[in-house]
Write a structure and sequence with these properties.
There is one protein chain. With 141 residues, the protein is an alpha+beta fold. The protein has one domain: RutC-like (60s Ribosomal Protein L30, Chain: A). 26% of the residues lie in helices and 26% in strands. Strand 4, helix 3 and strand 5 form a beta-alpha-beta unit. Helix 2 crosses helix 3. It is globular, with a radius of gyration of 15 Å. The protein starts with 7 loop residues before the first helix and ends with a strand.
């Protein structure tokens, strides 16, 4: 369908701000998430606390904090982890951390449930020295 055939209301976007989630990092000039066309697009979340400190304890704790924050944003948008259709995971140390990240990831996306599509990318570095960042696209039921 061409853009001009899409009803105006479907081309709009709504900015999501989840008050109980970590606020967007000021340097990124991005929203926590944007709703458009029945989907919610969540910006990348690293494992940090409300004061932008990367959580200690390594990849397990950082992955858990990132996915918990992602979940809060999805709920604020009227969706949830069970509605994620695509996730992207960025790892600063792919060989070292993939298996450990995946253990925590499976707590949020159990293998027996319908799993979202996923891409996992090894990167040279993440902001604030984080080990992991996760973004996603979910439907709004």
């Amino acid at each position: 369908m061409a853009v001009n055939e899409v009803p105006e209301k479907d081309r709009s976007k709504v900015i999501v701000l989840a008050p109980d989630a970590v606020p967007p990092l000021p340097v990124f000039c991005a929203s926590q998430a944007v709703i458009s066309g029945g989907n919610v697009y969540v910006s990348g979340c690293i494992g940090c606390d409300d004061e932008y400190n990367v959580v200690g304890g390594g990849i397990h704790q950082q992955t858990r904090a990132a996915l918990e924050n992602l979940s809060k944003i999805l709920v604020a948008a009227g969706s949830g982890m069970e509605h994620v259709v695509k996730a992207t995971v960025y790892l600063a140390h792919m060989a070292r951390d993939f298996e450990h990240m995946n253990e925590v990831y499976q707590e949020f996306f159990p293998p027996e449930s319908p799993l979202p599509a996923r891409t996992c990318i090894g990167v040279s570095a993440l902001y604030m020295g984080a080990f992991v960042e996760v973004d996603c696209i979910a439907v709004i039921p």
